[in-house]
Design brief:
By secondary structure, the chain is mainly beta. Among the domains are: 152 residues, Galactose-binding domain-like (Jelly Rolls, Sandwich); 158 residues, Galactose-binding domain-like (Jelly Rolls, Sandwich), CATH 2.60.120; 105 residues. 4% of the residues lie in helices and 45% in strands. The strands form 23 sheets. Strands 18, 20, 22, 25, 26, 28 and 30 form a seven-stranded antiparallel β-sheet that branches. InterPro entries: Kelch-typ_b-propeller (IPR015915), Rax2-like_C (IPR024982), Rax2-like_second (IPR048266), Rax2-like_third (IPR048265).
């Protein structure tokens, strides 16, 4: 196989491991700017949310994946760090790829599948992706799906196979600089695999028995187009009663009477027109001329719409000669039967007009019209099916519909269709359409189901899967398959290829469409039409064809080829699924038998040769070749004649040893794809891993490794000889599926599927450390994987659409070291018990993981955490009991005992109790609780209440309050900032300051004018008088605004799908340009699910006042968008002080008091010194000290004698 060869289908052969390991990508990745965030003063830092995979935004263009639900898949590659780079989203499966090199230059990568859109570009099953520009070019011209492509560098040709029509070929065609028909007209059945043999021939494999194409039935022009279903109008109709209605002539056969004939006004040209809700490709027009009162149409023309073209016809004239006409086609006068006109060109239309330009007698008219086609359709809209007018249309196509179906306009589709919207439990009986075509000739048919696109009717989010069943022959040949209906644009799926019996009185072929049972609601199901195409072929083949591209003509003596001859030795009806070539030997796999050959064999120099054990005991669906080793997958459980342990669904065949070995012990169901990829699974170097995808639910036990559950995906690590899940040192887990890959020169490996890589231990909550470019690490707790979801099992509640971790808290007081997580999740405790929704990781004395007891309802949700002393308050949508005491909305956990507190606050009450915010008042025993409730115990305190921890009593902190509180933050010891949507004192507000002393609210900046409730907020400066707020506007979009103390400033630039869950001002290590909104030494961290129009989605972005920069990307286990609820830190008071040249408010007050005291003391000292200097300057001298003998005389002088004469002096004493 040449280096440009690729997977011929999701189950075919790819590049060798050696190529993968030696490939060096020449792509230039541009590193994203450093976020420069400063975490140095915050202590421990963590991010919380709903995710299974998380990474920092490292490379420009890096983005989160979109949801892989409903069969959508990605084209993707890998960044240098191993993370996946999403390149283009397909609305269905990508099944095959190869790099197209023409004359030595890479033209792009050919991508094939059953999609109708790739990267938002309409593309019917095949497109060209340019790795240099990422531009997508649809290769228009095919109708159907592509299953295999092979890019042949030597001939600069792409060979394409599948289930499609294009040009004059069916199921096989070539692309050079455009579509080129092969010398043969394709195949009469699907092509599923293409490869190149060692001698240069191209080998096609599939389900066909001959070269050929679709054809028309032997009896032509017998499918009647239902004209009565159209909107019929006319111009210049007569006013004569019984002859003016243009509908008179539909389904009439020349009965020239009132009510059966349409006439024009006398001597006036006019027209007859029909517009229809479905498209058709007519082959014959039958007209009945009128002879009413000698009138009749003499000449006319036929104009088709929407092309607005006049059609050419052939007909047999009155002399029996073949004639043609265009603008003036004739009708004979007095004709008592009909005249047939055959369309020269095959033109699709949904509207046509017959213009009458000349007439016999007094005016023109018609007494009957019929339109025929060769296409055999059955429409879901029964009115579009064949009428029963004459001997030709006695049976007619038909359909029946049961369920809540409504007719939907065609939009961009080819016809109107039926739509059913299901809102309750979905079963196969919820809705049903049975299609019954009018098959007049038995034969081999290709049956195609048409599905209208979901973009035109805006139902992509609710489309799902349908079950297709049916019967084709009187002997019970049946079909049973499932199809996704999530295609963006119209698509066509072949649901059956084979023999179909003609309709009779006792049997009629039919196809039934129903929804697949058990799907989520609301579910939208659509049904449009089914087409039956008669197929003809040369015969002589049996699933394989060896094509020599050097021969201009096809040799139909197939016995000359050993490939064709080997296939003909198999039982009739062989289905070839995969091909591989090693040296001069071709390996063929599929569904077939012949003697000792079963489902896989080789073709060397001689005939077909069985592999050891007689082959495998059931269908082989895929092969992946690595040198002389071939990995195979399918429905088998072992070889046929010998028993090799572990060959269940997947196996390895060694060409060198001519032997089978197992991959572990296999899986418990079919495998349909084995694809290699490079992965760093242990945190060291990348190595090759084989992605195994299929329809299995568990991987079988092997050795000391027990059986484990999975959802159709497992990864085999060849270097370890074990499954990735079983490796103790693995740091990554994979989920989803991988269907195709190819190697591209100077680019590397290109992958297709719905693969999601999840870092083990990095689910829903992670540690963030380091400044500048920080790094992510586990929080130190192992979250047990749960089948069918992520590593945390998540359930959305009805009251709060919250999953994962919603909030967190680091508690490092009183000698404790605890990390606390709250939200809606399931994990395991250190004792092995189940933990729901509140998780405490106690690292005080070795790690101990504990959580709520099972008396707290598992469907609770924790939304808010706060600590007062050693009491942890947890609020949310919480119900349950503790010590026979009801819990509702709030509970208290004793951190000193690491258990629920024995005494709990009285339960909150209301119709839908939820606590969204808890704020412990600084310097007091009071804890304030906000949310949506009516009472606390017996006390009325709607949505805002205060709990006194010293007395264990609830108190009403204000009066006249009504509404919902979403967030609260203390500004000072007595001032609380409250965000939500509420009314207090008759005033509506969404952001207000609550004064705990005055017990009053003050609106901040006429916040009632904000476009919606405030759900997230953060202070924008150290004084806490500027604020950032976010929420959801009344129109459903998110808003982000800043309050500068006086005015509000709105920020734009976020996409419509943005959901903001958290805000936080963070310091930076390097200043950015100063803006009016954000200081140069800070950035605003926005968390949630943020849509950036130029960067896609991110879970956290940084805003510097002018631009948004992605920061954190997350995904869920199913490939959907993850989200972050926010950041929580050990030292939240340092958010506005770390390297920001600002101090916290408390420190500012203390420093100010110290400075004031210092200044006062200094002034006093200076005053004393100045006074001493003044006195000395004025002659003051110290008084002489008295001798001891002089003290005695003091007692002898009465005080009045000493001071008594002072008041008698008239002048001031002299000093």
């Amino acid at each position: 196989m040449t280096p440009s060869a690729c997977l011929s289908r999701p189950l075919a052969f790819g590049s060798t491991l050696a190529i993968l390991l030696s490939s060096v990508s020449a792509r230039n990745f541009t590193q994203a700017p450093s976020p420069n965030i400063d975490l140095s003063g915050l202590g421990r830092v963590a991010l919380a949310g709903d995710f299974d995979s998380i990474s920092l935004y490292t490379y420009q263009g890096q983005s989160q994946n979109a949801n892989f639900a409903n069969g959508s898949q990605y084209l993707f590659s890998q960044y240098p760090d191993g993370s996946f780079q999403s390149l283009a989203l397909a609305d269905a499966f990508i099944t095959t790829m190869c790099p197209f090199v023409s004359h030595g230059e890479l033209q792009g990568v050919v991508v094939g599948g059953n999609f109708t859109s790739l990267g938002g570009v309409p593309a019917q099953g095949i497109a060209l992706w340019n790795p240099n520009t990422t531009q997508i070019t649809p290769l228009n011209g095919l109708s159907g799906s592509v299953s295999a492509v092979y890019c042949d560098d030597e001939s600069s040709t792409v060979y394409v196979g599948g289930t499609f029509t294009g040009g004059n070929s069916s199921n096989a065609i070539a692309w050079v600089s455009g579509w080129t028909n092969l010398p043969f007209a394709g195949f009469n059945g699907p092509v599923t695999s293409i490869t190149k043999s060692s001698n240069g021939s191209i080998i096609f494999g599939g389900s066909f028995d001959g070269l050929g194409n679709t054809t028309t039935p032997t009896t032509k022009d017998v499918q009647v187009i239902n004209l009565s279903a159209g909107n019929i109008t006319s111009g210049a109709s007569t006013s004569t009663s019984g002859f003016s209605d243009p509908r008179n002539i539909i389904c009439q056969t020349g009965d020239d009477t009132a009510g059966n004939t349409w006439l024009l006004e006398d001597n006036t040209p006019g027209f007859w027109r029909g517009s229809f809700g479905f498209g058709f490709n007519p082959t014959k027009l039958r007209l009945y001329n009128t002879n009413q009162d000698g009138r009749g149409t003499k000449t006319w023309r036929f104009t088709a719409f929407p092309i607005n073209g006049i059609m050419n016809f052939t007909y047999t004239d009155e002399s029996g000669n073949l004639a043609s006409c265009t603008a003036t086609c004739p009708l004979p006068q007095g004709n008592t039967s009909y005249q047939d006109f055959h369309f020269v060109n095959s033109v699709g239309m949904n509207d046509f007009r017959i213009d009458i330009s000349a007439w016999y007698g007094a005016g023109g008219g018609l007494s009957g019209i019929e339109l025929f086609q060769n296409d055999i359709y059955s429409f879901a809209v029964s009115d579009f099916n064949e009428p029963r007018c004459d001997s030709v249309s006695t049976t007619g196509a038909n359909s029946t519909a049961t369920g809540p179906w409504v007719q939907t306009p065609s939009g961009q589709s080819t016809s109107d269709y039926l739509t059913a919207t299901l809102n309750s439990s979905v079963t196969s009986n919820s809705a049903q359409v049975v299609f019954m075509p009018d098959i007049k000739q038995s034969g081999n048919y290709s049956v195609t189901l048409y599905t209208p696109g979901c973009i035109q009717d805006d139902t992509c989010s609710s489309r799902g899967i349908v079950n297709i069943t049916g019967s084709m022959t009187t002997e019970g040949s049946a079909i049973a398959t499932t199809l996704y209906q999530t295609n963006y644009y119209d698509k066509y799926d072949q649901i059956y290829y084979g023999y179909v019996d003609a309709a009779s009185d006792s049997f009629r072929p039919e196809v039934t469409l129903t929804p697949l049972a058990g799907q989520n609601t609301p579910l939208t199901v659509v049904a449009q039409r089914v087409r039956f195409e008669l197929v003809t072929s040369t015969g002589g083949l049996n699933g394989l064809y060896d094509y020599n591209p050097n021969m201009a003509t096809v040799n139909t003596d197939f016995s000359a080829s050993k490939i064709d001859s080997a296939a003909m030795s198999l039982d009739t009806g062989a289905k070839i699924n995969a091909l591989a070539v090693y040296n001069d030997v071709t390996y063929v796999a599929g569904n077939f038998t012949n003697g000792d050959i079963h489902n896989i064999f080789s073709i060397g120099s001689g005939n077909a040769t069985s592999l050891p054990g007689g082959g495998l005991n059931s269908v082989v669906r895929t092969m992946y070749q690595n040198g002389s080793t071939i990995y195979v997958g399918g429905n088998f459980t072992n070889t046929v004649t010998t028993q090799t342990a572990g060959l269940s669904g997947v196996a390895v065949f060694s060409i060198d040893d001519n032997s089978w070995t197992a991959l572990g012990a296999g899986v418990n169901g079919p495998v349909w794809a084995i694809v290699p990829l490079q992965l760093n699974i242990t945190g060291k170097d990348q190595e090759t891993v084989l992605a195994v995808s299929g329809d299995f639910t568990s991987v079988n036990a092997v050795g000391s490794n027990a059986t484990y559950s999975t959802d159709g995906f497992a990864a085999w690590v060849p270097s370890q000889g074990n499954w990735l899940h079983n490796l103790a040192n693995a740091t990554v887990a994979l989920s989803g599926g991988l269907l195709a890959q190819t190697m591209v020169a100077d680019y590397g490996q290109l992958l297709a599927g719905s693969l999601v890589a999840s870092q083990i231990g990095l689910s829903d909550a992670v540690a963030l450390s380091g400044s500048g470019r920080p790094s992510l690490s586990p929080l130190g707790v192992t979250i047990s994987p749960v089948q069918g979801s992520s590593s945390m099992r998540k359930r959305a509640t009805t009251s709060q659409n919250v999953t994962g971790v919603a909030t967190g808290y680091f508690y490092l007081e009183n000698g404790k070291n605890m990390t606390i997580l709250g939200g809606h999740f399931t994990a395991n405790s250190s004792a092995g018990t189940t933990i729901n929704n509140l998780l405490i990781i106690d690292d005080t004395n070795g790690q101990n993981v504990v959580g709520l007891p099972n008396t707290v309802d598992a469907d609770s949700t924790v939304l808010a955490l706060e600590v007062r002393d050693t009491s942890l308050f947890a609020g949310g949508s919480i119900t349950g009991t503790i010590n026979n005491t009801d819990l509702n909305g709030l509970l208290v956990w004793d951190l000193s005992q690491n258990a629920l507190a024995s005494s709990q606050p009285a339960a909150l009450a209301g119709s839908s109790v939820t606590v969204n915010a808890i704020a412990a008042q600084p310097g007091s025993a009071n804890v304030y609780v906000g949310g949506n409730f009516e009472n606390a115990g017996s006390m009325s305190c709607p949505s805002f209440c205060m709990y006194d921890t010293s007395t264990g009593q609830w108190m009403t902190p204000t009066s006249g309050f009504n509404g919902t509180i979403n967030t609260m933050t203390w500004r000072s010891n007595n001032q609380l900032i409250v965000g939500g949507d509420f009314t207090t004192g008759g005033n509506h507000t969404k952001l207000a300051l609550y004064d705990a002393k005055k017990q009053t609210f003050t609106d901040l900046g006429t916040s009632a004018n904000l476009p919606g409730a405030v759900t997230a907020m953060t202070p924008a400066n150290p004084n806490y008088d500027n604020w950032w707020v976010a929420g959801t506007a009344n129109n459903g979009s998110s808003f982000l605004q800043k309050y500068d103390g006086t005015n509000w400033h709105s920020v734009t630039g976020l996409g419509a799908a943005t959901v903001i869950r958290g805000l936080q001002i963070v310091s930076v290590t390097e200043k950015h340009q100063l803006t009016d909104l954000v200081p140069s030494n800070e950035v605003l961290l926005i968390t949630g699910s943020v849509e950036l129009p130029d960067n896609g989605n991110a879970s956290a972005v940084l805003f510097n006042g002018t631009t948004f920069q992605p920061f954190v990307l997350t995904t869920t286990a199913n490939g959907g968008q993850g989200s972050l609820s926010g950041m929580f830190v050990q030292n939240p008071s340092n958010f506005l002080s770390s390297k920001s040249h600002h101090l916290a408010l408390g420190l500012v007050v203390l420093i100010g008091l110290a400075i004031a005291c210092g200044l006062t003391f200094l002034l006093v000292v200076i005053g004393i010194l100045v006074e001493r200097h003044r006195r000395r300057r004025q002659g003051y001298v110290p008084m002489p000290q008295l001798r001891p003998d002089q003290h005695a005389n003091l007692n002898r002088i009465p005080p009045e004698s000493l001071f008594g004469t002072l008041e008698k002096r008239d002048t001031a004493p002299r000093v």
